[in-house]
User: Fold these one by one.
Assistant:
Number 1:
Amino acid sequence: MFAIRKLSQITKNCVIRLSSPRKESCLALQFLTSRSKHNGILKDDDLRDEEYENLSSEYLGLSSGGHNALVLQPYIKWGPDKKTNTTPELQLEEAVTLLKTLPNWSVVDKMCVSLMTLEKSKLLGIGNLESLKKRVRSNKVTAVFVSTDLLKPIQMQELEHALRVPVYDRYSIVVQIFRAHAKSQEAKLQVAIAEIPYMWTKLNLIKDNRTAQVGLVECRRKLLMGREAKLKNALKKLKAQRELLRSKRKTHKIPTVAVVGYTNAGKTSLIKALTGDKTLEPKNCLFATLDVTLHRGELPSRLKVLFVDTIGFIQDVPSTLIEPFIATLEDAINADVILHVNDATHPDRRAQMEHVDETIKSLIKDQPVINVANKIDLLKEDNPPVGMLGVSATQLTGIDILREQIDKELLKATGRSVIRMRVQAGSQAAAWLYKETAVTNVEADPKNAQYVLMDVIATELQLKMFKKFLKQ
């Protein structure tokens, strides 16, 4: 009953009386996956500030009515900065999909343009700029989306002056998608922090303008400083709260499996298939999940486990945009096993997989990684990519095999073994196993009714402690 007593001390509000250790494990899982409606980090009213909202609408180019947009995909045609694992056409299609994620936005034209560098103060040469101007006019374009991570202020200023329409980069578009999809208090906080660096960039651009009103700039600077300080303080509380939850999971020795991958690879769908959780509602769009959430599951060994759903990765966005989400991504970083989910049907699968691999290598420690190719039911050939376990989360193809692989890797990673013990029914030895290990099954000994056969999952240390206990 140690785990339940500790849990009662943590909650303080709860009175818990259970006789079954199996129920105790379920209760701990339920407690650790529940979401608090009032976590004390930051209230919605703190995020809603009319003066700031007016400023952000101006700087981020927010438009409830949407835009008829032209998508421009610049690419480096040769040299060390040229991308070799993808093509400009595939990058352009991702940019189009990204834009279509925003409500009321439509793509009326798209084009690729080759450049020697993205660093010049004037992004486009005279010829490319004139061609772009003609297409903007002829297609009644109301906004241009330049699919690069972050345009320099002088680049954006030059383009807007020449085209006479708002110009967006990937930072500003992704922030708007985040805003549209953020539902929880935590997600809204992290999105609010993510947009602050972009707001400073726009303010500095105005400050450098000689005709800018000094008083107006100073007023806006104080507004941003105050909001940034409040949000950073709230982020510290969020990190502390997440660390506390991780500590509780360690106390209850509940193993975790983090599900990571490129945006819209099917992470939530896979967790639904693995857990059978019918309350999960996966969506076929980019960045449908902005929260890191925990979901209870059971493996073939009958070991209870938590699956961690995470925000999707995407290429070509500044680190300042993703940095606020590290507070919740740490739940994945500290998981026992990592599931890297890849969309087996995506034409740019290789670049997406390499991007996620590169990102998680810089975050995780030495946890085992299981590479999963999802959506194989949509492949023309039945064979998944080499080195990956093929599954279909929607059709449940390969899910049982994946569970077995997770079970194997998780037991190995956490130093656990599945062992059958023969002990006297109702004995102190049986009570010790219930208390200190995960008892997954109990059967009467067919040879002697006074004994039971207990299937337990235990670490080497627990087994040594059990042997020591028996000698007492």
Number 2:
Amino acid sequence: MMMYLDGQINLLLYTEEDKQVVKKEVGLKDSVLEEDIDAVLEWFKKEPHLAEAPIERHLIEKFLVVAKGSREKTKKRIDNFYKYRALAPELIQSRIDALAKPDQKLWTFFRQAIIPKLYDGKRITVVGFSSDASAFDTEVMYRNIILTVDLRLKYDYMFSDIWIVDLNNTGLGHLLRVNPIILQKAVNLYQESVGIRVKHIHCVNAPVFGHHVVNFMKKFVKAKMIDRVIIHDTMESLHKYVPKEYLPKDYGGDMPSLIEFTESLNRDVFNEKIKGELIDYCKLVSDESKRPREKYDEDCMVGSFKKLDFD
């Protein structure tokens, strides 16, 4: 029987053995961990644009995991994390109003499942979409995804991700409704700050225009991320990479359906304790007006999108 650790939530579970596997993989040593956290915390409190913001020791530890124990890389990741969140209030602060309405469904036009058990130290997330392209909203989608990333930073312990993206029901109408500025902000938040490594992105039920999606994403994410995209023609092909015990039953797995996972996720984020923590995480932003170096230019972050094509 697996012995999960105290203080966890049912959405995100891991054992002490899982934790040690992750630490061993990244070379994080318990003998110097507290010293590393102290050093990063001391740096954080001396940065004028960060000093007023809250930070927890366990959060620093998660960034040390991503940075494979490097203090300097950890500092860079944390600085980016607070900066990019400050520059994306529509993805961070907007959750406060959304969570103020307990009867509201946050997941409507897309579905999301976070598989509770770690698979070989990796967290699996499944995402699917409704067929109504007119309901597709990049801002809402990434607001919700980043909200779940915050939950993971609070409660999870992992080094890398596996994403399963169900492209059934999607069409060119969905792609044309993507807001490129919001997408770039979300990519920066995930790729340049949180920095959880992505082992694979499995695309299932891909439509004929699936290559357009990949070409579009090349404009925003690193090439090595695109190299990790695997398009599956059958569920049997997916099962060669992800065992059935880690998949919703929609995908030939043993877990609850994607809809059931989504409904459970929607209920859980309105739990008073979890909701309070998600709102508290909105305070994890920098004050860019106090940054000692040249003020960050938001225009540089989003780049130029004068022409987008789908060749």
